[in-house]
Specification:
Number of strands: 6
Oligomer: single chain
Helix content: 40-55%
Distance between the termini: 39 Å
Shape: elongated
Radius of gyration: 25 Å
Length: 293
């Protein structure tokens, strides 16, 4: 069922949960075990008929051996009671999505009492993605699988809209590259990608300060702020203070530098907060200066 009564009546719960708990893991465990049993993962790991007449299911041993080699943090056999870390579960879902196909029953082999199979990749992947995303949605989990089976974060809608519709046309290819990379990486479920997104956003901000004409970086940065509000206006003063604060944050915390004097950020919520704060300023500057946004 894709749409339950509570969703029709009260709407979908906001996707705010960032840790996959025992309840959700138990459901994901069943989805994976079911597809091992019905041969769906035979698309990548086919079990061959002893007579050599073709595959008839999933080779569970091959599936598990490659899985633990590609995902060294996973324990096999999987247990519904032992919940892996959330990033590891997302890796497992991507691995599973890459292996799945819808079994298509072929000829019956009476001697071994089995049917030979082929696989419909597109249908099998779509069904797997839909079932995983249903579990996530029903439990307000802030992740989803894309149509090609890649795990990604679900951002709050206003942030997602801003990220999705912003165009980067700064006139500086390196600034555009940094901004686009930061946009792609901030939606990643992997903490290291989100930290990298923050670093690239701060690097882009430093480059944007030099795009306006002027004798030095300070004057150029001031000219950029002047595109948003006239000098002397209270909003212009507030904007200058915000730009100075964000520059100080980039130098004080482990964002652009890694010296021992830089304080590390200790949670993903801190990374998200600073990303949104910096992105809002950059978006304003881009729009006001005719550079996209």
């Amino acid at each position: 069922m894709s749409n339950y009564f509570t969703e029709r009546e009260f709407g979908v719960r906001p996707a705010t949960v960032t840790t996959i708990d025992e309840r959700v893991w138990g459901g994901l465990y069943v989805l994976i075990q079911t597809r091992i049993g019905d041969g769906s993962f035979g698309f990548r790991f086919p079990q061959q008929c002893p007579d050599g007449n073709g595959p008839f299911g999933c080779d569970e041993q091959s599936f598990s051996r490659v899985m633990v080699a590609e995902l060294p943090w996973i324990k096999w056999p999987l247990s519904p009671e032992e919940v892996p870390e959330t990033p590891v579960i997302l890796d497992l879902l991507e691995f599973s999505a890459a292996a799945v196909g819808e079994p298509v029953v072929g000829t019956f082999h009476s001697f071994f009492d089995h049917h030979h199979l082929s696989w419909d990749r597109a249908t099998g992947l779509a069904k797997f993605v839909a079932e995983v995303n249903l579990l996530f949605r029903r439990n307000a989990v802030a992740y989803e699988l894309s149509s090609d089976g890649q795990a990604r974060r679900i951002l709050p809608q206003p942030i997602a809209d801003a990220l999705g519709w912003t165009l980067f046309q700064t006139g500086d290819p390196e600034s555009d590259r940094l901004l686009e990379a930061s946009r792609r990486k901030i939606v990643s479920p992997k903490p290291e990608d989100r930290q990298d997104a923050l670093e690239k956003l701060w690097d882009a901000f430093e480059r944007l300060k030099t795009l306006e004409p002027g004798p030095n970086k300070r004057a150029q940065a001031g000219a950029l702020l002047d595109r948003v509000a006239v000098p002397g206006a209270r909003f212009r003063e507030m904007l200058a203070a915000e730009a100075a604060n964000l520059t100080s944050i980039g130098n004080s915390f482990r964002i652009r530098h890694s010296e021992t004097t830089q304080e590390p950020l200790t949670s993903l919520d801190q990374i998200d907060y600073l990303f949104v704060r910096m992105f809002a300023l950059i978006r304003l500057l881009l729009k006001a200066s005719g550079r996209g946004g």
